[in-house]
Amino acid sequence: MTAALLLITYAVAAAGAAPFLRKGTWAERSPKVGIIVWQSLSVTVIASVVLAGVMLAVPAMPFTMTLADFLRACVTVLQEQYSTPGGAAVTTAGALIAAAVTARTGYCLFSEFTSARTARRSQLRSLALLGRRDPSGHFLVVDHQTAAAYCLPGRNNEIVLTSAALAALDEGQRAAVIAHEKAHLRARHHVVVAAAKAIERAFPRVPAFSIAHSELVRLIEMDADDRAARSNARLTVATAMVRLAEAGPAPSAALGAGGTSALARVRRLAWPSAPLGRLHALVAVSAAAAMLILPPAVALTPAVSTAYAQTCPTGFPASI
To answer: What is the C-alpha to C-alpha distance for residues 254 and 164, in angstroms, rounded to an integer?
Structure first.
């Protein structure tokens, strides 16, 4: 019971830390580190609640040396757990919490990934009719009066530019945009966004998940900018973003180079801050790892303590 309460308290504290975690520029300075931290935050909150429910539903079983003794001990512990109305209520509530959170998360993840795949296939069918392959073979061109560029993850990993984007971008800027979209595809940023969107959809009343979703959408664009800037001048990438800033949100299940965050990203590219130092990056990644390890560690503590108490001597025999 104590460990379950600790996990619930930890989940509430971790979720409550999200508004404070988004403050400052630490994530913008190293977007990859920020992506790891925000993903870990969402996972640790959900895992803590599920494991707390499991611990309430399944009491810690005593350690035994044989299977028969273990089964008898399990029956005894469960009978004691259900022998009082309070024990039965706690067990039932824990089982319902664990099952509900797991089922809701799994359903929304499955639904989000399925709908995204369906949307991408629909767009690819439309592009097969309306788009034309650029002579370079690197992207598709769609006639449209708005300058836009986006990628469609999938088996073919298509990159799409509108005719207005081709007219607005020079050769260097076009190369920067293509590098940006290829960065999305290589890093599989669409998986990060889909998972964050699914969790937000699963628990819309938990502000931490909506904050994590918005931060991850912002950070993956910055990460793609940084990857594009490795092979192109930062100012070239920034200028290309300015040319595409008028573009609205990318089509469903696609990732675009422009959009509403483009101007903020332009400022970041034009006046870059120093990345996080090795020590600060190590601290952030270590904190993310701790968030993932802590819930199962707390959940296993009662079982480990029981096994240790029953297998290790508590004192030394008296001398004769």
So the answer is: 19
pTM of the model: 0.84
DSSP β-ladder status, 158-162 and 255-256: unpaired
Give one DSSP letter per residue of 127-168, joined into a string. Answer: HHHH-EE-TTSS-EEE--SS--EEEE-SSS-EEEEEHHHHHH
Residue 170: phi and psi, rounded to 5, are -85, -175
Q: Are 153 and 117 in contact (CB under 8 A)?
A: no
DSSP string over 72-136: HHHHHHHHHHHSSHHHHHHHHHHHHHHHHHHHHHHHHHHHHHHHHHHHHHHHHHHHHHH-EE-TT
Tokens matching residue 101: 């959170």
Range 157-161 contact pairs with CB under 8 angstroms and sequence separation of 24 or more:
157/185, 158/124, 158/127, 159/185, 160/127, 160/131, 160/254, 161/134
Is 170 within 8 Å of 235 (Cβ atoms)?
A: no
In angstroms, the Cα distances linking 189 to 4, 46, 117, 139, 223 are 34, 21, 14, 19, 9
Two tokens, residue 231: 């092979």
183-230: pLDDT as tens digits: 999 999 999 999 999 999 999 999 999 999 999 999 999 999 999 999
Tell me the pLDDT tens digit for each residue of 225-239. 999 999 999 999 988
Domain ranges of the chain: 2-304
Residue 282 tokens, joined: 């190590």
* Backbone phi and psi for residue 132, each to the nearest 5 degrees, phi listed first: -135, 145
CB 218 within 8 A of CB 61: no
